[in-house]
Design goal:
305 residues; alpha/beta; Rossmann fold; two-stranded parallel ribbon; 12 helices
């Protein structure tokens, strides 16, 4: 059985990804800081291992793996970005990734691939500019985080195949951005955030999970790929489509100054404009199940009230 080690696999993406890997016949090793919490979430098909900041310890578990998937990092949307929390956001990503890379280097049997998460926040806010993997990166906090994160992951290229997925706004029925957007619509006060002219590059969680699986098996994939659906939309269009799918109005707007007051610097996550290309992953033969926003939202909300 091919073993996949997943680091940071108890969040929105990781939980769905572990389920998918198991159903595909992989053995899954899940590294966690809280054993009790992980055991309450996963059945005994998942080998749950306590995370330790010990390269030799980690290497013994990673040696001989088919692949490693690194999703680890402090949540971006759970707290205001104080200076202390900003340090936690970046260090939780860079230090963990560096440890993984060092563990791969000393492993007695090198894993075949490392897939490392990143985010389209690396581009900063670039208006309507069409952003490919070769585009200039930004200079704001999120861009700095992603650049440092990717820099650590790509060091493993001298040891194994590395794929970095720059993940867009993940749409899921079980949390994340969509869950936060639903409440105002249910209360008939839904609408765009900010002026609504910024681009959101999104992806259905099933397509994102499938992209991880595709990268595991496609030996021609290496380097950085945008993990977004091929049809980004402006925020006001997103709100219009969501309102239509829900049968709710979508003409209210949350002004930029209010978002800044409520969220502080983290408001940049929803106010940034990133019109991101999926051409590179499409050119590798990946097929999206949900390339259009309306169909994605219909699928995700089909069982909601």
């Amino acid at each position: 059985m091919k073993i996949i080690s997943v680091i940071g696999g108890t969040g929105l993406i990781g939980t769905r990804l572990v389920e998918s890997l198991l159903s595909s016949g992989y053995g899954v090793r899940l590294f966690v800081r809280s054993l009790e919490s992980a055991r309450s979430k996963f059945d005994d098909r998942v080998e749950i291992i306590e995370w330790k900041n010990d390269v030799a310890y980690l290497s013994t578990f990673l040696s001989g793996n088919f692949g490693i998937i690194n999703l680890a990092g402090a949540p971006l949307a759970d707290s205001k970005w104080t200076e202390e929390y900003k340090k936690e956001i970046i260090q939780s990503r860079t230090k963990t990734t560096s440890l993984i890379v060092n563990a791969i280097e000393i492993a007695t049997e090198t894993p075949k691939i490392l897939i490392n998460a990143s985010a389209i926040g690396i581009y900063g806010s670039q208006g309507a500019n069409f952003l490919t993997e070769r585009s200039d990166t930004g200079n704001d906090f999120l861009a700095q985080v992603c650049k440092a994160w990717e820099h650590e992951a790509l060091k493993a290229q001298s040891q194994t195949r590395v794929v970095v997925l720059r993940i867009g706004i993940v749409l899921s029925a079980n949390g994340g951005a969509l869950e936060k957007l639903l409440l105002p619509f249910k209360l008939y006060v839904g609408g765009a955030l900010g002026d609504g002219k910024q681009y959101w590059s999104w992806i259905h969680i099933d397509d994102l999970v499938a992209m991880f699986a595709y990268a595991l098996l496609n030996d021609t994939m290496t380097g950085v790929y945008n993990a977004v659906a091929p049809n980004p939309v402006k925020v006001d269009e997103f709100a219009r489509i969501l309102g239509k799918v829900m049968g709710k109005p979508s003409f209210f707007k949350v002004p930029k100054f209010l978002l800044n007051a409520l969220l502080g610097e983290s408001a940049e996550m929803v106010l940034s404009s990133q019109n991101v290309s999926a051409h590179k992953i499409l050119d590798k033969g990946f097929l999206f199940k949900f390339p259009e926003l309306k169909e994605s939202l219909r699928d995700l909300l089909k069982n909601s009230e």
